[in-house]
From TrEMBL:
This is AraC family transcriptional regulator CmrA. Residues 189-287 form the HTH araC/xylS-type domain. SUPFAM superfamilies: Homeodomain-like. The keyword Transcription regulation applies. The keyword Transmembrane helix does not apply. PANTHER family: ARAC-FAMILY TRANSCRIPTIONAL REGULATOR, TRANSCRIPTIONAL REGULATORY PROTEIN. GO terms for molecular function: DNA-binding transcription factor activity; sequence-specific DNA binding. Gene3D superfamilies: Homeodomain-like. It comes from the Bacteria. It comes from Sphingomonas oleivorans. Keywords: Transcription, Transcription regulation. InterPro entries: Homeodomain-like_sf, HTH_AraC, Tscrpt_reg_HTH_AraC_N. SMART domains: HTH_ARAC.
């Protein structure tokens, strides 16, 4: 069977509902959408995404990344992204394989490979052409869903080969940067982690720079190269994403959610929320509860 057809068949078999379907394989989830979605602001975590059918778009700043059965997406750091399923139907739904990147496994694998961290900065998101060498272990990992007893032994082997193939690809240097503790990307990742842990409090750029072991000017330059935004813009995105979660999942009112994530002015919170999500908090929450779009908040 053609590998993409087999991947499509397996995803359809184990993800028969709409949205994100967790699996018994660690770090592996499947995604299904039976219709295109509106552009949605969300946070992509480090992962490999392979589309078996349909097409999706990810927008990082002003840059657009389209991925489909010919191209896969790799995300190296937590990034606020605008995502959109742009090709899907009831007859041919969007089907996607998503594997969270295991950073310790990447680091261990690098110890057995020639060290080549690459140079320069690149965005924390990339799209590459799919190859048979990458699809092969992906299919073997998916087949394990049919034989759960084999997962503890064979899933780590297939995942290791997937990571190895990614390290050999065009964007392999980007993935090497994730695992190297002394790399620029790892420093930016530490800054991102600090902001995510402390998003509700005001911060000075010097504080985040110390966390990343960088000068403030260097942090600002490299942070923007990787995330397409400044640290303060990143904090704003994280705040608004968390506020949206509070409103939707915990039924918090807009004022409570705004204060919880660090806003002192309800009007400023509502204004910035509308700018990011396209509607004020109450209307946005009502719209999402009336639709199935919420299921597609992850790549």
């Amino acid at each position: 069977m053609d590998p993409l057809i087999e991947l499509r068949t397996l995803i359809g078999r184990y993800c028969d509902g709409e949205g994100i379907c967790p699996t018994v394989v660690p770090r592996l989830s499947l995604i299904r959408a039976s219709q295109p979605t509106e552009p949605r602001a969300t946070v992509y975590e480090p992962a490999l995404c392979i589309v078996a059918q349909g097409r999706k778009r990810a927008m990082l700043g002003a840059t657009i990344f389209d991925y489909d059965p010919a191209k896969y997406l790799v995300v190296s750091v937590d990034l606020p992204i605008v995502g959109q399923v742009v090709e899907a139907s009831e007859a041919e739904p969007f089907l996607c394989f998503r594997l969270e990147l295991d950073v310790p496994a990447l680091a261990a694998l690098l110890l057995e490979m020639p060290r080549d961290a690459g140079s320069g900065d690149s965005a924390g998101l990339a799209v590459n052409a799919i190859t048979p060498d990458l699809l092969d272990p992906v299919i073997r990992l998916m087949r394990l869903l049919e034989r759960p007893a084999d997962i503890p032994i064979l899933a780590p082997l297939a995942e290791r080969e997937i990571l190895y193939r990614l390290l050999l690809c065009e964007q392999g240097a980007l993935l090497r940067q994730i695992a190297l503790a002394d790399s620029r990307l790892s420093q930016i990742n530490r800054a991102i982690g600090w902001i995510k842990r402390n998003y509700a409090a005001p911060f000075r750029i010097e504080t985040v720079a110390r966390e990343a072991n960088m000068s403030p000017s260097s942090l600002h330059h490299h942070f923007k190269a990787v995330t397409a935004m400044s640290p303060l813009q990143y904090q704003k995105q994280v705040r608004l994403q968390e506020a949206r979660r509070l409103i939707l999942a915990e039924r918090a009112d807009a004022a409570t959610a705004g204060f919880a994530v660090g806003y002192e002015s309800p009007s400023q919170f509502s204004r910035e929320y509308r700018r990011l999500f396209g509607a004020p908090p109450v209307r946005d929450a009502a719209r999402l509860r009336m639709s199935s779009e919420l299921a597609f908040s992850v790549a």
